[in-house]
Amino acid sequence: MAITLNSGFKMPIIGLGVWRMEGKEIRDLIINAINIGYRHFDCAGGKKDFDFLVVGVDFLVSVVCLIMFYQSVSLPITRTKQKLGRHLQKHFEVGLSRGRIFSLPPRLLWNSDHGHVVEACKDSLKKLQLDYLDLYLVHFPVATKHTGVGETDSALDEDGVLEIDTTISLETTWHAMEDLISMGLVRSIGISNCDIFLTRDCLAYSKVKPAVNQIETHPYFQRDSLVKFCQKHGICVTAHTPLGGALANNEWFGTVSCLDDPVLTGLAKKYKKTVAQIVLRWGIQRNTAVIPKTSKLERLEENFLVSEFELTKEDMDVIKSMDRKYRTNQPAKFWGVDLYA
């Protein structure tokens, strides 16, 4: 299943998050995921360089090979990009056309690169050894102190508060993103973590509409107005925390997941599915892309099989009534300022 972006290109509707995985675990996971059929991978928040693209997976067996790699938040990513680039070039040389690869850099446009959009994009292209990217997103709607092109450190002041650059507007950043289109460096551009008002503003000053808005959304944090607003204006919504973060967000932010909710467990029994499958199917039936995380092979397979059943309208309405307006991912813990306030 795929969603057609407003740029005309297609993006897989279900992907795999690999946050906090590393080493052999991640290599085996990616191999298994590709064999199952995954073509959309989200690496944002991972701890280590990811070497999974140099394990000899034969992408030529796929009818269409759509691969998306995201990386962010103060991570060592240069070696990852270079290995990805070498691997892609290897397969181009043996006959895999560039047009069958949907590429997104292992890092979205980071906060500190808002004033250096073209340089940051070219840096990604150089390390990936590609001529263009299919999709490039502004990771957070805030410009911060520049720490060097391609660097992902979040500069904090002496009080431990994020160093926000007040000289760079989001409009300036977006027009620089649009330049990437006219320069042929990128095919589609988008935003991430933007609310309805920032999305509205972007639409007002944009010459090229954002193709994607990647946000946290799940049954406890449905953001129905934002999702409907984006979809009404042709912007695809991708849920970067479709299961509410589960154990990871509990450890990092002290939040709870919707997966233990008795309503959802009841629906899982009704459909003879896992709770995660119910939640992912709900997200897909909202026409949002979902990128759940799992390290278990059986869960990997189960999550990918959500196309094999459908929730009734009545059960979709039941889940709709569960909204708590409850955000589980809160970078304020690290930045000392609540960007969502």
Automatic annotation (TrEMBL):
- One Pfam family name is Aldo_ket_red
Q: What is this protein called?
A: NADP-dependent oxidoreductase domain-containing protein
What family is this protein classified in?
A: Belongs to the aldo/keto reductase family.
Gene3D superfamilies recorded for this chain?
A: NADP-dependent oxidoreductase domain
UniProt keyword list: Membrane, NADP, Oxidoreductase, Transmembrane, Transmembrane helix
Q: Where does substrate bind?
A: 139
Q: Does the keyword Transmembrane apply?
A: yes
Q: Where is the NADP-dependent oxidoreductase domain?
A: 116-323
Query: Is RNA-binding among this UniProt entry's keywords?
Result: no
Q: Which GO terms describe its molecular function?
A: oxidoreductase activity, acting on the CH-OH group of donors, NAD or NADP as acceptor
UniProt-listed InterPro entries: AKR (IPR020471), NAD(P)_OxRdtase_dom_sf (IPR036812), NADP_OxRdtase_dom (IPR023210)
* Residue intervals passing through the bilayer: 50-70
